[in-house]
């Protein structure tokens, strides 16, 4: 049985766009984060008016043109597959604005939403501005693309990162959580994971659990699934032979990623 925290692809045609994934507050435990993944054929378009949310449009694969008011970002996107492992372009749009996405080639765009706390300028986040980071050692090595980290003031509440984990490795590990609004020790941030796997028939494991185990779900995740992390630790383990990609969206009352490691496993960080 699929966990209530795991969503299989919808693949629902809506107008000219295929809605591949859609995670809404109204049908999840989330209060801050929403996520949509759309697929567009060349010249097909998707339009949306944002109300209380801001949105980061990630040109996941293929090429798109994003228009908001007088802004037009033409032919953005840098890769045919996320597994080319190069950063891509994104566009940030604040609440109250309308945007249009048009496929230049067949393309996929990830729409990452969170509350719009202040009106901010629409901004192209160019691939070359996306910081790339290597984290961890041994089987905890992974690569991170920081699309909208907390050090970047482009957004008012939204955080967005991409993570690559090689087969046999673990990421979001040692397990950490960010579910207490208790700064400076820990921030409260909900999170979604949009997963892709190379090759696509692969699977990986993601566990979401709390200290008291009132929540403790271990999921077999497949290509295209979304895992919702309303609270708790959320490590990912990738079987040998497969590479994992995931796109994280995070948001909460404070735009700071201050996490707390599971004390039982924090020793992993101290290995020589
Ligand atoms: O460093 C990683 O392995 C990625 C994670 O930090 C991931 O972005 C996350 O869990 C954020 O809370």
UniProtKB/TrEMBL annotation:
Gene3D superfamilies: Jelly Rolls. It comes from the Bacteria. InterPro entries: Deoxy-glucuronate_isom_IolB, IolB_Bacilli, KduI/IolB_isomerase, RmlC-like_jellyroll, RmlC_Cupin_sf. Its EC number is 5.3.1.30. Pathway: Polyol metabolism; myo-inositol degradation into acetyl-CoA; acetyl-CoA from myo-inositol: step 4/7. It catalyses: 5-deoxy-D-glucuronate = 5-dehydro-2-deoxy-D-gluconate. Keywords: Isomerase. One of its GO terms (molecular function) is isomerase activity. Coiled coil: none annotated. It holds the Pfam family KduI. HAMAP family: IolB. NCBIfam families: myo_inos_iolB. Involved in the isomerization of 5-deoxy-glucuronate (5DG) to 5-dehydro-2-deoxy-D-gluconate (DKG or 2-deoxy-5-keto-D-gluconate). Belongs to the isomerase IolB family. This is 5-deoxy-glucuronate isomerase. It comes from Saccharibacillus kuerlensis. The gene is iolB.
């Amino acid at each position: 049985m699929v966990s209530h925290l795991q969503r299989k692809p919808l693949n629902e045609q809506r107008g000219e766009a295929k809605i591949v994934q859609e995670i809404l507050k109204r049908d999840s435990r989330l209060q801050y984060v929403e996520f949509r993944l759309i697929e567009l054929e060349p010249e097909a378009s998707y339009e949306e008016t944002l109300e209380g949310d801001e949105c980061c449009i990630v040109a996941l694969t293929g090429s798109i043109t994003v228009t908001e008011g007088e802004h037009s970002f033409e032919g953005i996107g840098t890769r045919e597959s996320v597994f080319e492992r190069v950063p891509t372009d994104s566009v940030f749009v604040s609440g109250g604005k309308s945007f249009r996405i048009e496929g230049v080639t067949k393309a996929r765009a990830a729409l990452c939403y969170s509350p719009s706390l202040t009106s901010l300028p629409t901004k192209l986040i160019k691939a070359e501005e996306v910081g790339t980071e290597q984290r961890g050692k041994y089987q905890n090595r992974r690569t991170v693309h920081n699309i909208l980290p907390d050090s970047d003031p482009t957004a008012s509440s939204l955080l967005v990162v991409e993570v690559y984990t090689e087969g046999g490795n673990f990421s979001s590990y040692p397990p950490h959580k960010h579910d207490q609004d208790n700064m400076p020790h820990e921030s409260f941030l909900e999170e979604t994971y949009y997963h892709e796997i190379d090759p696509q028939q692969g699977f990986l494991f993601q566990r979401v659990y709390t200290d008291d185990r009132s929540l403790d779900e271990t999921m077999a995740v497949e290509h295209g699934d979304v895992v919702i992390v309303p609270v708790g630790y959320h490590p990912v383990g990738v079987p040998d032979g497969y590479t994992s990609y995931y796109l994280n969206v995070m948001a909460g009352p404070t735009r700071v990623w201050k996490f707390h490691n599971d004390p039982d496993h924090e020793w992993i960080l101290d290995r020589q």
